[in-house]
Amino acid sequence: MIPPHVSALGDAAALIHFAASNGFLGAALVGLGRTFVSDYWRLRSNLGLTRYGEAAVMEKLIAAGFSARRAPANIGHNPARMTFLATRVP
Question: pTM for the complete prediction?
């Protein structure tokens, strides 16, 4: 999940750092370039990108019948994003 304070620029910077550390910087830069010239920015402006704080995610998961907790660390490249562990409550 992307929290409200995480910007697209910060997300791109985290990807570049991760890519540089793991040997695929060129591919990441090409991917970011393609995203930059694609319809992504127009669509994001028109449709928006939903971002949630931790409390809002927990509320939604509980309302949907899950027991949930935030994972200690995000599983993706950006530590500013959030991972949640959820189990359906019988």
Answer: 0.76
